[in-house]
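Per reviewer request, we include the raw input and output of the structure prediction for the construct analysed in the revised manuscript.
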Amino acid sequence: MPGVTAAGDAEVRGDVLGTWLPDRLLPGYATLTLPGWTPAAAGRTARAVAAGGSAPVLTVVRPPDPPAAPEGVVVHLHGYNDYFFQTHLADACHAAGWAFLGLDARRAGRSLRPGDVPHYQGDLREQASDLTRAVAVARSTWPGRPVVVHGHSMGGLVTALWAHAHRARGGPDAVVLNNPFLSVERSWVTPLQDGALRPLARSAPLRVVGSSPSRYAARLARRWDFDLTLKRPEGVPVRAGWLAAARAGQLRVAAGLAIRVPLLVARSARSSAFVDDGPDVDTTDTVLDVTTIAALAPRLGSDVRELVVEDSVHDLTLSLEPARTTYLSALTDFLTTLVRP
């Protein structure tokens, strides 16, 4: 991809043009909005849904005052019903000498457009192509620096599959997964049998197959300041095409990936059912079953390092103290080992 300079009004030159503009959500931050594409390899259903809504875009978010000569760059990919707002994650990376870019993928966060189905992707290669572009921005802005992708939840699943697909060229220098969505088992998604899901996804990809409030998001809103239209306490409906795409990716993980770069898989110590004001609601993963993450992590690559964070919630970066600092310290320690063994 053509070069991107680090100036405040930097342009992406070549096949697309874009300008860094002040972020409407985070003071001092800047955003670069780029057109996305639906890869030819994606399925017919994914292309049909993409053609039926707004042209997809992706948004790269840059914090103020990045290190002048960073050790490397961290690119963050959010989860479902999520977007980038965790400024303390960017601050921790900057304090460790690393630049940081957040990615709001197509139909999510800052990239949501009128007519879009929020967070919908009919093939995980759609969001993976957004990640390819964000990583290209990172490499062009800070050439020669290592790039680490930090993926949370659904973004963790996409990141793992993307890193596997790009293991020969164009991939990351390392990967960090924050409670990745590697399985639907005992998760917030009520799965259909795959045999029934696949034909439904082909015939009616936007059919709602699950809908419920996100009590987890509502709980986080008590102590974190985020846009409730972009991370919704009322939840985002699960649609057949999205669930089929997620299941296809998860089955690929279960068969084993071959990620060749260092991989840190971080998870909560325990999971529990969400109970309003229950004793475990702020100290466990109430979204995913962490035992499945533990079981599947070794199948991701040849250099998998596991991190278990006590008393942490689904997004480890949004945990109460001291769990939050424990995670951020482990993350930056991992980054340091990449450049200073």
